[in-house]
Automatic annotation (TrEMBL):
Keywords: Hydrolase, Metal-binding, Zinc, Zinc-finger. The lineage of its organism: Bacteria, Bacillati, Bacillota, Clostridia, Thermoanaerobacterales. Its EC number is 3.1.26.4. SUPFAM superfamilies: Ribonuclease H-like. It comes from the Bacteria. Residues 1-135 form the RNase H type-1 domain. It is an enzyme of class 3 (hydrolase). The keyword RNA-binding does not apply. This is Ribonuclease HI. It comes from Carboxydothermus ferrireducens DSM 11255. InterPro entries: RNase_HI-like (IPR053576), RNaseH-like_sf (IPR012337), RNaseH_domain (IPR002156), RNaseH_sf (IPR036397), Znf_SWIM (IPR007527). PROSITE patterns: PROKAR_LIPOPROTEIN, RNASE_H_1, ZF_SWIM. Coiled coil: none annotated. Residues 177-209 form the SWIM-type domain.
Amino acid sequence: MIKVYCDGLCQPVNPGGTACYGWVAYLGNKKLFEDWGVVCSGRKATNNLAEYTAVIKALEWLYSNGFATQKIQVYSDSQLVVNQVNGLYSIKSAGIVPLYREVQRLSREFSNLKIFWIPREKNKEADALSRRAYREYQEEYHRKKRLQNAGELSRYVVQKDPAVFFVPSLTFSGQYYLVNLKHQTCTCPDFQKRKRKCKHILAVEIYLKGTGKNATASV
C-alpha cells in the first residue's frame, strides 16, 4: 500500500502571500518520491489553493509513474480539502471548483484510492517540504533583488585603489561603505551580519566587469 502525505501553506499572509505545496509518498517504509514547489504569489494565493495543489501534484506523479492500480491512501491536514473531496462539505468558493474537479478527475484514474484527514502534528514531513518551498522562494527572491540593487549601485562605485572601493548606501543618503574586493569584505550591516557577499560587493564586481577588468558578479 502507498501512503501519501500532503500539505500546503500561504506565507507570510493568507490570502495574498506565496502559496507553496509539499508532498511525500511511501511504499511501506520505502520513500517513493517527494516534491515541493510554489503555486503562485499575490492576490490569488491562499492556503486552500496550496493544500489542493499538493494533492493534485501527488496524484499526477503517482499516475504518471504507473501506480494507478495500487492501493493508495492520501493524507492531508486540511479538513476543507478532505471533506470536500469526500462529499461532506459543500464548495462555496468559485476558485476552489476547478481544483476540486481536478482532484475528482485524477481520482477516477485510480482503482483503489482514498483520502483521509490527519492532524498537523502527524503531517510534519509534508509540512517541512512546503516550508522548504517557501524558504527557497524567498532566497531566490532576495538573490534577484540583491543583484538588481547591485546593478543600480554599480553606477556610483568609487575606486580608491586596485582592491578597495567606496559604494553608496541605498538606504542612507550620503553614506558609503568600504568594500575590500581582495578579502571579499564590506563594512555594511548586511555583510557584518551574514558574512556573505552583499549587494555592495556585487556592485563592485559589476562595476569592474563594465570597465573590462576581471570580475564576475554572482551571489
